[in-house]
Each structure stands twice: as structure tokens, then as C-alpha cells.
């Protein structure tokens, strides 16, 4: 068995413009990312109960000041199998796309943008993501690891959140946690049961419509890890499927609002995503009835620093992109005015 280990500092990975994936057309929009992933510190002054402990949006990652010195990202390829896709030099790596193609209301398989990102070339964003391959020649089972840590779980606990995406096939993977790990991190550190599992599903997968768009996943870190330092692993286990994309990995203290809640005064109001963010974020909400909508943003002193008048909107789900390029790094609060009613505030953190 071949074992390849990479401690992430710089990446030189190829997804060729001539690469062909199972049952798909070629794409010239997926490219290698061969620059270093920049590490930034989440300032202690920007953190409180419910705030971010770690955030990996690519092509940067953020870690709280306490854990930052010992935090690393490591990948390992244990299967040693040859990818069908020409030019993929290892089975877990960072890629990027500039494809913003939409078919009807659905993004193409190479459109990796999230709702809060502005597609290139019209915008300045590029869609970075982790990619792991499972289509081999000859066929076989992937055994790829993406590991990161150490990160301290507060005594109150923590929640891990991320987005995944596949193609016509659904690639299986599992998420594991360890409090006894080596330096550098190694797959052998993760001997416990998985805290999250996704299974293989052949083409077309039963959940194809969801799997081919970015889907939010979330799991609570088991309470036996509360108050300890941990490492986390994404273990790609798909057997002769296609490819797995992972993005926007986020670990939060327990107590943060993660999204779904009940209708209050005619609106269901979700936490902005991503959070923290440096430039753009998406504010999601759902209306029971048609209403006039205004979004107000305040700094920590209560001063209004931005106001988005969305006008009259129909019942249903809505996404508003908020651009914070003109605001300084720090903590801000936002609320929605729905007709004559105002929602409770939610906190957003801007990092520069």
C-alpha cells in the first residue's frame, strides 16, 4: 500500500483542462492551485460564546489565537491508485473554478460558487474547494485523508459544519475526531468511531438533485471531547464512484445559531454564511407572506453602518448578498425589518 503525506503549505495539483470525469463533458474551468494557503488569526477580541474557533474557506484559513501556533493541515493518500482524470497528481488537494454556468436553476457540475460569492470574471471571487478522486484505473476504493488540528473544544462543546458536493455519483466519506494525535498528524491517530458518515450511491444517486449543489452538513462534537484539544479528519472512502468536494469547514462553540428556526412575526431568519468573512456573506431568510424587507447592520456601539432596502418581496425563501468591503474588521450585528416588525439581532464577524 502506497502512503503519500502532504503537510499543507503550498500546493501543486492539476485538474487538467482535458480531464474527463465519469459521464461528463470536459471543462477548462477547473484548475490547479499552486500557491500557499494563507493562515490568519481570529482575534480574541472578536470571540465570545457562539463564535468561530476555526474556519477554512480557502484559499486562506483562520484559527483562534490560542490554537494558531500548533494548527496544521495534513493530507494523506493511502490507496496509491491511479486516477482516471488525467493530471490529478494526488487524491486530496485544493482546486479552483471560474465556471459560473447555470442550467435552468441548477449550477453545472463545475460551478463551485456559493450564493455569497461573485462569479468571475464579473466579480473578483474564485471558487476554491477541496477535491478527492475515487474514479481509478483499475477500479478500487479511495483511502484519502484530510486532517487538521489541534483545536481546543470549549467546556460548553462545539459544532462542526461544512459543505459537500458530488457529481452524478455520491461519494462516501466519514468524519472522525481524536484527542490523542501525533505531530505531524497521521491517519493512524483516528481509531474511534466516525461522528458522521455518508455512503456511496451509484449514478444517478437517489439524492442527485441535492448532491450536485453545495449542501450544508453539521455535526456536534461528542461531549467527551469537551475541554480537550482535538484533531479532525475527513476520510474519503468511496469505491469506484467519481469525486468528492468539501468546502467552508467551520467549527463553532455551542450556542451559536446555525440556521433553521421557527417563523416569528412572519419570518424565518438564518445565520449569515460564511461567518466570519472578509468581503461577501449571504443572509438567508424565508417569508410567510409578502412583505417589505430592510436589512440593517450595526457596529458594537449601536451605530448603523449599512442598510439594505430590499423592497417588497414575495412569500418564500430569499438570499441577500452583503458586501462588507468598506467596513473594518470586527464584530457587527444585523437585523431584518419585516413590515413593522424587527427580528432579533444576529452577530457577524468581519476579518481582513
Brief overview, please?
The protein is mostly beta strands and 352 residues long. It has one helix at residues 208-211; strands at residues 4-7, 30-32, 38-42, 52-56, 60-64, 72-77, 92-97, 102-103, 106-107, 127-133, 144-152, 158-165, 173-178, 196-198, 215-220, 229-236, 243-253, 267-269, 280-287, 291-299, 304-313, 316-323, 330-338, 341-342, 346-350.
Key features?
mainly beta, globular, 6-stranded antiparallel sheet, about 350 residues, 25 strands, Jelly Rolls, 9-stranded mixed sheet
The low-confidence runs, each spanning 5 or more residues with pLDDT under 50, are 8-27, 256-260
Instruction: Give the biggest beta sheet.
Output: 9 strands, mixed
DSSP helical segment count = 1
Structure class: mainly beta
Overall average residue pLDDT: 78
Query: In percent, how much strand structure appears in the residues?
Result: 35-45%
What is the first-to-last residue Cα distance? Answer: 43 Å
CATH topology of the largest domain: Jelly Rolls
Rg for CA atoms: 20 Å
Percent of residues in helices comes to: under 10%
CATH class category label of the largest domain: Mainly Beta
Amino acid at each position: 500500500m502506497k502512503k503519500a503525506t502532504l503537510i499543507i503549505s503550498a500546493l501543486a495539483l492539476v485538474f487538467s483542462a482535458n480531464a474527463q470525469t465519469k459521464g461528463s463533458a470536459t471543462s477548462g474551468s477547473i484548475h490547479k492551485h499552486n500557491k500557499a494557503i494563507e493562515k490568519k488569526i481570529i482575534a480574541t477580541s472578536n470571540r465570545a460564546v457562539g463564535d468561530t474557533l476555526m474556519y477554512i474557506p480557502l484559499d486562506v484559513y483562520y484559527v483562534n489565537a490560542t490554537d494558531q501556533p500548533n494548527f496544521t493541515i495534513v493530507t494523506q493518500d493511502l490507496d496509491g491508485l491511479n486516477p482516471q482524470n488525467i493530471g490529478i497528481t494526488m487524491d486530496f488537494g485544493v482546486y479552483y473554478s471560474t465556471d459560473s454556468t447555470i442550467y435552468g436553476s441548477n449550477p453545472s457540475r463545475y460551478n463551485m460558487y456559493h450564493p455569497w460569492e461573485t462569479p468571475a470574471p464579473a466579480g473578483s471571487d474564485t471558487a476554491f474547494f477541496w477535491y478527492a478522486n475515487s474514479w481509478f484505473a483499475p477500479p478500487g476504493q479511495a483511502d484519502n485523508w484530510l486532517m487538521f488540528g489541534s483545536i481546543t473544544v470549549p467546556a460548553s462543546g462545539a459544532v462542526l459544519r461544512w459543505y459537500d458536493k458530488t457529481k452524478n455519483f455520491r461519494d462516501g466519506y466519514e468524519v472522525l475526531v481524536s484527542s490523542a494525535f501525533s505531530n505531524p498528524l497521521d491517519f493512524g491517530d483516528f481509531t474511534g468511531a466516525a461522528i458522521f458518515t455518508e455512503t456511496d450511491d451509484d449514478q444517478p444517486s437517489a439524492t442527485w438533485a441535492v448532491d450536485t449543489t453545495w449542501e450544508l452538513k453539521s455535526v456536534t462534537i461528542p461531549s467527551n471531547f469537551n475541554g480537550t484539544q482535538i484533531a479532525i479528519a475527513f476520510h474519503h472512502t468511496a469505491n469506484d464512484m467519481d469525486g468528492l468536494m468539501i468546502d467552508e469547514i467551520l467549527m463553532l462553540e455551542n450556542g451559536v445559531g446555525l440556521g433553521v428556526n421557527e417563523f416569528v412575526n412572519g419570518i424565518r431568519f438564518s445565520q449569515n454564511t460564511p461567518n466570519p468573512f472578509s468581503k461577501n456573506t449571504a443572509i438567508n431568510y424565508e417569508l410567510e407572506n409578502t412583505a417589505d424587507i430592510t436589512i440593517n447592520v450595526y457596529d458594537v456601539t449601536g451605530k448603523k453602518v449599512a442598510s439594505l432596502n430590499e423592497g417588497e418581496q414575495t412569500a418564500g425563501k430569499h438570499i441577500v448578498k452583503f458586501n462588507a468591503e468598506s467596513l473594518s474588521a470586527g464584530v457587527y450585528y444585523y437585523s431584518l425589518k419585516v413590515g413593522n416588525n424587527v427580528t432579533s439581532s444576529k452577530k457577524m464577524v468581519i476579518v481582513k
